[in-house]
Amino acid sequence: MKRTHQFALLATTIVIAALPVFAQTIATDSRIFRDGNAWVEEITGSMPAPASLRVNTDMGAITVQGGTQNGVTYIIRKRVHGGSEEAARRDLAGFSVSAAKRGDAAVIEGTTERRHGRLSVEFHVQVPRDLQQVRANTEGGSLSLHNLAGRVAAQSGGGSISLSDIAGEITADTGGGSIEAANSTSLLNLRTGGGSIKITGSKGKVNASTGGGSISVGGASEAVTVSTGGGSVQVQQCGSELLVSTGGGSINVGDVSGKAKLDTGGGSIKLTSARGPVIANTGGGSIELWKLMQGARAETGAGPITVEFLGMSTADSTLQTSVGDIIVYIGPQAKMTVRATLDMANGHQIRSDFPELKITSNGGEYGPKNFYAQGSLNGGGPVLKIRTMSSNIEFRRAK
Length: 399
Prior knowledge:
By secondary structure, the chain is mostly beta strands. The chain is built from 2 helices and 37 strands. It has helices at about 1-20, 85-95, and strands at about 25, 30-35, 40-45, 50-55, 60-65, 70-80, 95-100, 105-110, 120-130, 135-140, 145-150, 150-155, 160-165, 170-175, 180-185, 190, 195-200, 205-210, 215, 225-230, 235-240, 240-245, 250-255, 260-265, 270-275, 280, 285-290, 295-300, 305-310, 315-325, 325-330, 335-345, 350, 360, 370-375, 385-390, 395. The chain is elongated.
């Protein structure tokens, strides 16, 4: 009976020893020193290479830099400005830092007992570039993540976010700071409560939104969807479909390989070229659409419209403004049937470089007078409908 009890105890001991270590605390080094008018506590440490990294802090800036090293190293600096050494040490002790290996993840955390204006914190983390995932979360500081191959999730309560040279899918969210993303390869999801967004060198799909800041896309190989509550939008190049929405800012777009939908509550719209169909709407600004290959629907509440048709469209096009001149440039490959109406001309008229267009009018000599233009250009095709009031309509040959 005694031997049976001993065997059971030994078996239990072996099972316990064989259990995996789910949380392994990492040893760290710490020193406190004077730096000008501030007291600084510097915490350093390292751990073997994990599959992923998580950095969470109640406050402070976070920088994660990928490289060729095999493990994770970090430097955390807590800084207290002014006051006595005794008071500074109390404030430094009020923000605690922990580092641990939890399963396949390296986890670095910072927690504070109370917030005060004299304390600032910085996390600097060096990691292997090929980590599967990096997650960084701060409730108030900035985030900076660079040269990473895996997925990235970055969240700040209100600080700025900087991202560059990241191959994996990116999700970044800040309560109000600006976001900059350069040289991303996969899907890019960016959101800020009110800051600006700047994107350059994107090779994946782009989704970006801000509550009111401007958006700039220097170049994107895939589809782009951007929206802002009121800022301006600039897209230099889009390799696929483009969707742009702003509550009132201007829209300036370069070359679009697919279709484009551009919408602003009151700003101007300008497009350099598009291979797909274009929809452009503004509550009151001007519209300029150049080098269109697949037709357009453009409407503004009160501005002028200029459109250049170069390709053969398979769908009808519409240009409409309440008050503003409409100028249409037509290339020899753009086959269309024109139906244009100028209401209450009041001295304005319809002009055309194309004798195929028949221009007529009605109304009395002293009363309201309407002008009309109808006809087929380049053999006819989908209908181009044009309408404006108290402005000119012109049809010109594209050079």
